[in-house]
């Protein structure tokens, strides 16, 4: 079916140009660019991609989300750099679409526009006291230790002996691991120097991971929870282990079964002495954060499981408990942001779309020449590789639609560059980024680290201004 779409384009679009704007240089942006460029041989289309990124640095959450102790995963950026170095790709870093350029301008100058802007904000708990000092979104904490310029000024106070992480997904596992592991094991990674220093002085010795449902419903993948168990000097325990042991692991399948089996082995073993501890607490929901100006306690309600139409959900029992803590990190999901002029589904936090074609409303009419891929298309789920299949679906639709809409003969990059110059926007090219990358790696080597990141836009631009003049890239 897909092949027939592609082949029908081949007979009608031979030798034509297709100028595409891709907005967001995270995994979805790169995979979209890659699939577009690879189609040339099939369609004989001359495709050019301009990749817009609001930060000077590319790679999205691979740089600012993936945990510093998961360095091997970050190797995917080598493939991204290869895609960006294709002469048919131009990188416009430090350009925010919606501010520096409007959506209407992109639609005016490009044949097709694809949004791959990810999901950068967080979901709120919606409980009293959530705004107290000591209460942070996981998005902010992750951005803080990873040096995302939006979060480097976050005031993270680690002087409390107990931290509570709300949520049991893989981001919650990352957050718990970074908080509780011996800081020395992070010292050679690309963690920011200020975060490493704060973690070295941290008083946190216990992290409580809260899940509103039971062990079988936990969203973490088996490897992630086992990684926590394998941390040196850290003991993993389960509050009320009897409820975990009461489960019949054989009644579950896939990851749920693996998780239950693993958690039962944890529940059965004798607890080991360790200086640090991670406590898993199931069937508990936060109902309030309490304290005077600062989180001092979290109020928890005990839940029971209710099954309705095959779905297991949590219902409060009316039994409450107060737990002392000075740090609460909510990790209950990332959420997309709306872009001016682009239809947005405020319930799901995604750009309205039908398998990658943007629609005027959820389930509404398709808007020609406008597409979406990645987390802003399907919501904040899935691994880096999931964005590949996702981008492929979008690109297949783009190529099938290639005949619709006007064609642009002049290169949009020149018009766009002039618009940005007139607006005083300092565009960062891929050659600029490669220079910053080299500086980061060199600074890292000096400190025995993988890299030492620039963590402000100003410092990146200053480093570029301080460089001896080089020829601009293509
Ligand atoms: C904390 C965390 C840890 C993770 N760890 C792993 C892991 O270990 N392994 C794994 O496989 N996956 C991991 N993931 C998942 C993976 O990071 C995502 O699947 C992937 O990054 C989503 O890709 P994306 O391109 O849709 O979004 P993003 O990676 O968020 O990229 C979006 C890009 O768009 C840019 N942008 C946003 N708005 C604009 C605008 N208006 N103009 C221009 N540019 C804009 C952003 O700056 C960003 O660079 C993790 C995710 C998180 C949150």
Task: Please explain how this structure is put together.
- The chain has 474 residues and is α/β, with parallel strands linked by helices.
- It has two domains: 2-120 and 337-428, NAD(P)-binding Rossmann-like Domain (Rossmann fold, 3-Layer(aba) Sandwich); 123-334, 3-Layer(bba) Sandwich (FAD/NAD(P)-binding domain).
- The chain is 34% helix and 22% strand.
- The chain has helices at residues 2-12, 27-38, 40-43, 60-64, 76-84, 103-109, 138-146, 170-180, 193-200, 222-229, 241-245, 254-268, 375-378, 386-400, 412-422, 430-446, 457-466; strands at residues 17-23, 46-53, 89-93, 112-115, 121-122, 135-137, 162-166, 206-210, 234-238, 276-281, 284-290, 297-308, 311-324, 327-330, 334-335, 344-345, 350-351, 353-354, 357-359, 366-372.
- A seven-stranded mixed beta sheet has the order 3-2-1-4-20-19-18, sandwiched between helices. It has a six-stranded parallel beta sheet with strand order 6-14-7-8-10-9.
- Strand 11 (284-290) and strand 12 (297-308) form a beta hairpin.
- Helix 1 (2-12) packs across helix 14 (386-400), helix 2 (27-38) crosses helix 14 and helix 8 runs parallel beside helix 10 (222-229).
- The model is unreliable at 1-13 (pLDDT under 50).
- The structure holds flavin-adenine dinucleotide.
